[in-house]
Give the backbone structure.
Amino acid sequence: MRYRTVHGYRRAYRIAGSGPPVVLIHGIGDNSSTWEPIMTRLATKYTVIAPDLLGHGFSDKPRADYSVAAFANGIRDLLWVLGHERATIVGHSLGGGVAMQFCYQYPSMVSRLALVSAGGVTRDVSPALRLATLPGAGQLLGLLRLSGAMGALDTAARLLAATPGLPGPARALSPNRLLNDRPDIMRILRDLTPPDARAAFGRTLRSAVDWRGQHVSMLDRAYLTATIPVLIAWGTDDTVIPYRHAQIAHAAIPDSRLETFEGCGHFPFRDEPDRFAALIDDFIATTLPGTFDPHRWRAMLLSGPEPVGVGDGEHLSRRTRSEVHEAMAIELSAT
């Protein structure tokens, strides 16, 4: 664990290994420790950098801008402070949205992009996150500070997770499936007990989600990733951000690679760390780093995105095309 002060705020980050830099960006309410299962595996070949985003983990938690654009600025600043001009960027959940935003704001600094159960595709998101944006949600989270509250919540979650699954189509509503990420959810909730952490969580959440769902989208600018390799990794049993988003993002991002983790939830890199680390290693080893050409970038901005499915439309279902077009029409967000 290391610390650097940037713009007067302490930024915490984990760093290990040597070689080409790989940046791992965590999700909302989480911190860099979430990547520990794969950091040591990747550190044999790469310089692995996992920051605590501002307002998270051991980084400072000021009353500040917690938008995806501000987080992307923070990643840029940290990389420059550490002496890295380019890196492979891996983002999970909210961190996936930050990674995509970083690619949009600083394309010359991105060698490759990996989106893991990423936010910012369409509106769908866990109902719990929608409820957490409502007035009074912060006060309810504050109850977790009461003696025994976390223990009681964990016990209740364990009992629900142990209940038999429902058959057929009703399986999606089975408690054991809805709580397949219980250990990680409880870990994140424990970190939200301090008041400053809860306040930062609330500001971060409301910058991207409201009661209707996610209100920022990467789809309107996904075509700008055409010059870099893109990997999309997702668990089929993700109950935070549905697996369907992986297929939509794959359809919208030119020449992207989709890797499916069957039976995994929102944290596939924690469910299957060996496979995930090997996937990132293979992704880096089998692709050339992207190049930034300002003339081509301008040309892409002028021409805009191609119709979804052009060139490789055979693998896209009519439903997928329709969903991408609908999402791009509704969820536009010129962040």
About this structure: Confidence is low (pLDDT under 50) at residues 169-174, 310-314. The longest strand covers residues 9-16. Residues 2-125+212-330 form a domain with the Rossmann fold fold (CATH 3.40.50.1820). The chain is about 40% helix and 15% strand.
